[in-house]
UniProtKB/TrEMBL annotation, chains A, B:
HAMAP family cross-referenced by the UniProt entry: DHQ_synthase (MF_00110)
Pathway: Metabolic intermediate biosynthesis; chorismate biosynthesis; chorismate from D-erythrose 4-phosphate and phosphoenolpyruvate: step 2/7
Substrates-to-products reaction catalysed: 7-phospho-2-dehydro-3-deoxy-D-arabino-heptonate = 3-dehydroquinate + phosphate
Compartments (UniProt record): Cytoplasm
Domain 3-dehydroquinate synthase N-terminal: 68-180
Binding site for Zn(2+): 185, 248, 265
Organism: Marinobacter nitratireducens
Top-level class of the enzyme under EC nomenclature: lyase
Lineage summary: Bacteria, Pseudomonadati, Pseudomonadota, Gammaproteobacteria, Pseudomonadales
Identification of the protein by name: 3-dehydroquinate synthase
GO BP annotations listed: amino acid biosynthetic process; aromatic amino acid family biosynthetic process; chorismate biosynthetic process
């Protein structure tokens, strides 16, 4: 059986970079051409290190490779943990010619990218995402950052990697809950921009949940392609890129309410997309059966279809008010004009929003 | 008597910005054209706030202006203090369309610029530097950052302001030690690139120490012009910009050894420039009497001509090894080919360096 392998380029002018997707890449693929200097610092966490750190080190032949192992979890996506990366870099005397490598999920990727963006005012980094969510989401876009007690990802930078290496084998050790969370973002790409991909997902969702390698590689490739297209059109998120936030305004509120790490990001986005579809129905944009179609697909992917019990409409309104997608105090939301076509609007009727929130919130 | 006023543009393509230098600007100059949104957050410190905060607020007619007052001092240039800015922004619900304003010296400028570079992944900022050092140094270049226990300015970003407003009147409340510290950087511009300016400085240094407004405005204008030229040639510090670090490799070692805040940055740079001139003599680049000329000018500016007593050659070597000006482990230094012409080299003879260090270090 031949190895499945895809490659694409994220086209950002002089900051363009490749995404290499395949089976068995970790430990065999040579990433040293993407390292300008002689020093490499691999940043990973205590869950991923025993599984893949050794293989990752061997991707950098001829380089001096150090590593730093962070605690695992969204709740550690803070300054204190970020500082462990700076401590390691300075203790090992890494110069401004060093290259950082993120080996792990979205938290490791966001923190490593942010550390790279501000260590000595900016050094290069490479991503080796090992969760489905990070493979289809943070591989493309250059968003990096940490959380603040008053909001998620409030402190960060745009910083593009030199290359992204995705090994589908790394998904075999992933908890199924995290596979589902990754599928939320995969489904999102179908919903916002690609009706044909959405159809393929409705056919293939069971294969994806069962982690069939061919289906996974295809889903990752098409998701990265979709996101790369959108990001190339709008690198700094002034316009169309905002459609990538489908379900995220509701989702971030859910994550904050639940406490970081209790709901996975993808789970919150899954429920958030159902809520966005519901509001789209109330706004007269899509038919009620389309909402049902979204809800069923989200459910088949193993994702929650509603926010946590106990979260009220007021909780949403308060938490969404500080969300960074707002401009000059108006609530901006991504809604569905049809399945496969999302738009950004700050004109949703507040009464419809209330109805959506009320219909989804179960206080006990 | 007509008001002294200069204006120049730092030419960085679509990130170009003006520097406006004059008397009585604070409280009268309208900066609101440089604010895209409706929110402004002025960041200042407890020393500057009682003197100039009210006047600064009135530079933004028609805007919603909040402020945050930080503790004063280089020792607060850390994450904890930086976080006070994020706390204020989030508590007051500043969106990604907010504009930050740095009102104060270099520490306030560096921290505010860094906060702006990473709040919600980047918002604009304006500088109102109130110390001579920050007026002639951090006004130009876009360097922002904070310190790490293992090194100065190790965490930061390049982030250009929308505009810089310099009021020479703000120097009237500055301690004389800080005027001298600012003159170290002014003298540096003469030494690295402008023989004619250096001559003017030798004539005018007493007027500058005496804070004659015309002399100060001229020195600030010419310093900013010189730095703007160098930075425009090399925004990301790959090449010629490194000459701006004359005296800084020795100077950073002195600051770290003395403990942040005990020696002012400019004082350390003053002594560092004398050391660099000394090494330039030993390397056969300039004559011994040129060293004397530098030493005399530094002394007349009220600056120390040698490192602190108790600092040894080994202290220098250890502290300079982690300096970020090093590439792949080699020590890079800025030396003087002549007075008015600096070069960057990693080829200084280690024995000459030892002789310079030994001749300046007084262990008791």
């Amino acid at each position: 059986m031949s190895k499945i392998r895809h490659e694409l380029t994220v086209d950002l002018g002089d900051r363009s970079y490749p995404i290499i997707i395949g089976q068995g890449m970790l430990g065999s693929y040579d990433l040293s051409p993407y390292v300008a200097g002689s020093q490499v610092m691999i940043v990973t966490n205590e869950t991923v290190a025993p599984l893949y750190l050794e293989q990752a080190v061997s991707c950098f032949p001829g380089k001096t490779v150090d590593s730093v192992v962070l605690p695992d979890g969204e709740r550690y996506k803070d300054w204190e943990t970020l500082n462990l990366i700076f401590d390691a870099l300075l203790e090992k005397r890494h110069t401004r010619k060093t290259t950082l490598v993120a080996l792990g999920g979205g938290v490791v990727g966001d923190m490593t990218g942010f550390a790279a963006s501000c260590y000595q005012r900016g050094v290069p980094f490479i991503q080796i995402p090992t969760t489905l969510l990070s493979q289809v989401d943070s591989s493309v876009g250059g968003k990096t950052g940490i959380n603040h007690p008053l909001g998620k990802n409030m402190i960060g930078a745009f910083h593009q990697p030199e290359a992204v290496l995705i090994d589908t084998d790394s998904l075999l050790t992933l908890p199924s809950r995290e596979v589902s969370a990754g599928l939320a973002e995969v489904i999102k790409y179908g919903l916002i921009r690609d009706t044909e991909f959405l159809g393929w997902l409705e056919e293939s969702v069971d294969d994806l949940v069962a982690r069939k390698p061919g289906a996974l590689a295809e889903a990752i490739f098409r998701s990265c392609l979709c996101k790369a297209e959108v990001v190339a059109l709008d690198e700094r998120e002034g316009g169309i890129r905002a459609i990538l936030n489908l379900g995220h305004t509701f989702g971030h509120a859910i994550e904050t309410f639940a406490g970081y790490g209790n709901w996975l990001h993808g789970e919150a986005v899954g429920a958030g997309m159902v809520m966005a579809a519901d509001l789209s129905v109330r706004e007269g944009m899509i038919a009620a059966e389309k909402l049902q179609q979204v809800r069923v697909l989200i459910g088949r992917a193993g994702l929650p279809e509603a926010p946590p019990i106990g979260m009220g409409a007021d909780d949403f309104l308060n938490l969404m008010a500080v969300d960074k997608k707002n401009v000059d105090g108006r609530l901006r939301l991504v809604l569905l004009k049809s399945l496969g076509n999302a738009i950004v609007t700050d004109k949703a009727d507040p009464e419809n929003l209330d109805k959506t929130l009320t219909s989804f919130c179960r206080l006990q």
